[in-house]
Amino acid sequence: MPLTSITIIIAPYHVGLYDHRVGGGPLRIMSHGIDKELSKLAPVSFINIGPVDEFEGEIGRTFEILRRISNAVSKAVSNNSFPLVLSGNCYASTATMAGLNQARPTSSTAKIGVLWLDAHDDLDTPSTHENGYLDAMAASMMTGTSWHTLMKTVPGHQPVDVKRMIYCGLRDVSEIQRKTVKDAGIDVIWGDANKKVDFTSALAETLDRRDDIQEAHIHFDLDVLDDSLGRVNEFPSPGGFLPKDVMGLMDMIPTKINPTSLVVCSFNPRLEGGDTVARLACQAIYRLVSGLQEKGILTANSEEKGYSSGV
Question: Is 134 helix (H, G, I), strand (E, B) or coil?
């Protein structure tokens, strides 16, 4: 059955602090009118994740946001709506997978893949982590290798098989992190600061080979963008996506798999190039959701056209 609407879930927090650092990203993206553009494709509704100030510290606040995003995604999916999560932190994808599990039979969610578009692997655990940035553990939370007891409090959480992840744009990693990814046997399209990578073709070839993945959650960490476009957050790096890559990927992905959900995250709009990044994020979102409509996954709302990407 086709999806009939879009639900924008807004979580403007960095480790539970409202509009702090990357917590400002969702608000900046919304200020560029993404909801109005998406309403040209299908009806749009909103779920706002409320303040979590009463919870204990970074960890307590973070896990309450995980629980709330999971419930919001579950509600959207149960209403036959495509969940678009605008989040400060990457752990929104962990919560989104849990929300899909809440709303769908285990037999179907066990087959969902995760396309992780990111400069970083986010597979750190408390035992391997080096710099204190909690969000560097988002993927390990999702795959069941960290924070086991607290993850049990997230409704619908079931560890995702790490081999069902596919990285694209990965590059800003330590030797320990690179070894972790390699040892896990995960498919990776690496970014490269020294030569241009054709990310779209490489990911398309990987998806063609991975016939075990027919649908996937899309994780779009905006620091996957090349640092020439601006400082997306405090961890920019060369060798990433240019606008042509972003649009090519968002065009291609719905032709290869059925996207179940989209998280856009990890964007601090107060650094250099904030509005440039926000515009590109909006164009990317619109392009992916347009692809859902073209494939018949999302029912059409009108013949109006939205963003022109200019690339």
Answer: helix
pLDDT-based confidence at residue 308 (cuts at 50, 70, 90): very low
Size of the chain in residues: 311
Query: What is the amino acid identity at position 194?
Result: N
Q: What is the pTM of this model?
A: 0.95
Q: What is the pLDDT of residue 300?
A: 65
How many CB atoms within 10 Å of residue 198? 13
Question: In total, how many domains does the chain have?
Answer: 1
Phi, psi of 143 (to 5 degrees): -95, 5
Q: Are 230 and 241 in contact (CB under 8 A)?
A: no
pLDDT tens readout for residues 1-46: 789 999 999 999 999 999 999 999 999 999 999 999 999 999 999 9
Burial (CB < 10 A; 0-12, 13-18, 19+), residue 90, is buried
Residue 258 burial (10 A CB sphere; 0-12, 13-18, 19+): middle
Distances (CA, A) of 49 to 6, 23, 64, 211: 16, 12, 10, 36
Look up residue 301 and give its DSSP letter. -
CB-count burial class (<10 Å; 0-12, 13-18, 19+) for 126: exposed
Q: Please name the helix (run of DSSP H) or strand (run of DSSP E) that holds residue 223, with its range, or none.
A: none
Instruction: For residue 134, tell me if it sits in a domain.
Output: yes
144 found inside a domain: yes
Q: What is the mean pLDDT of residues 170-198?
A: 97
Q: How confident is the model at residue 111 (pLDDT cuts 50, 70, 90)?
A: confident
Question: Whole domain around residue 26: which residue ranges?
Answer: 5-295
Examine the pLDDT at 108 and tell me if it is beyond 90.
Answer: no
* Alpha carbons 113 and 259: distance in angstroms, whole number: 9
Residue 128 sits in a domain whose CATH number is 3.40.800.10
Residue 310 belongs to a domain: no
